[in-house]
Structure prediction request, 478 residues.
Amino acid sequence: MSGEQRSKPWGLRWRSSVWYVTFGVMTDVLVYSIVIPVLPFQLERLGYQGVSGRVGWLLFGFSAGLVLSTVPIAMFSERYNMRTWPLILGQVILIGSQIMLMLAPTYWLMVLARIIQGISSSIIWIVGLALLCDTASESIVGRQLGVAMTGLSLGSLIGPLAGGLLYHRFGFHGPGILAVILAAVDLVGRLLIIERKDALKYGVDPAAEPEPDDSEQTAQQENPVPETRAEDDKSATGERAMQLPDRPQLSLIAVVRKLATSKRALTVMFGSAIYGRVQTSVSPIIHADLDRSVAYASQEPALPLHLQAVWNFDSSRVGLIYLGGVIPTLISSPLSGWITDWYGSEWTLSISFLLILPWFGLLTINGPLALFIAMFCLENFFLAATVPPLTTELAAVSRMHEGIGYAHVYGAFNLSFGIGSARTSSTLAYIYDHVRQGWAAICYVSIGVLAMCSLLSMCFVGDKPLYSRLLIRRQSRS
Prediction:
């Protein structure tokens, strides 16, 4: 039975569209971040001492669950070519872990809930990004990933504010119930998704390239395609629309071997780990009670301590600085994705890493507060701009290696990011406490690793890396 003869599901086009798939990424980050500001107060209410260190282990539990579950999730999703059901399972686990955390009477149960939440986050990110790349056409995958990555910024912006306000009004159950409601709404959305492989059965390809604009149509009219060739192309397109090509199934060792021998893939994974490390260093976790000024964090990250030491900031003012740094990322992430589609990830990634460097250097200056805020916002702007080209480049790596699927490469991204961010806060606190001018030391270390990322991106990222283009141009001139 052909696609035209089948009875099409209700809402087929919008349920399989890339914009519908892109919409839901924010929920996971929001659910993760909404309870962070109130974890110390819940631990105090339960009678625990050493709250700062215990919060650090709760955050580490999330990273541990994420890292340990990444490989089996990526392999399962690609082996069975499944996206929707793993996403549904991930949302169910997310809801269950949130309820467990909300009702946990003891610390060990809270740690277990955070580990489970890390597992659910791993499912949602790996399979969700793979589904997005399945659905988006190659020409717009960068901008779609850029829009999806604004979920990081929105979740970080909305989560702490909503969590603090709800805790003040309703206690620990307040932010927990909101997180469960948001995850349940997203679960309904996941149930409605139609994957591309299923949409193709009805003659609808959500990953089809968009219609050419007027200039392209004019060019086609001036250089018409022979009629027989056009008919052949339409026939071939129709056949491809009915089924996806069979992909070879690789073992875990084969997948690791292919990715490990790809300089392009290794560069992106290194950049992802550095992004996770640097993002942790500039994204403090602020916990502010409305009745008293208290600043807790995972082993006290350096930025709140620096602001307190130089400008005598309390937790509420530090939170405002942090929120000011998040807002520019709402613009830079989709803008970076759009530029990546037009000019290639090699340009966007290399330049973004390079443009972060001066702002980190200027952050070491103990000058006017307005200067520090401006530098902090610019640094966050360009840091967020690295994520769309990183994830777009991983999609390109998947397409160039037979047997490597989107879930494989985004599993590698998830693993690299998790390793980069795990326990980074503790390391930063140690440097800040034990090194003279610790804040400057942290900034200089970040400059070094980011400069390395920019250099590697110029040498290995893209179909035609910038360094290779430069060599070819020099050879042609000589």
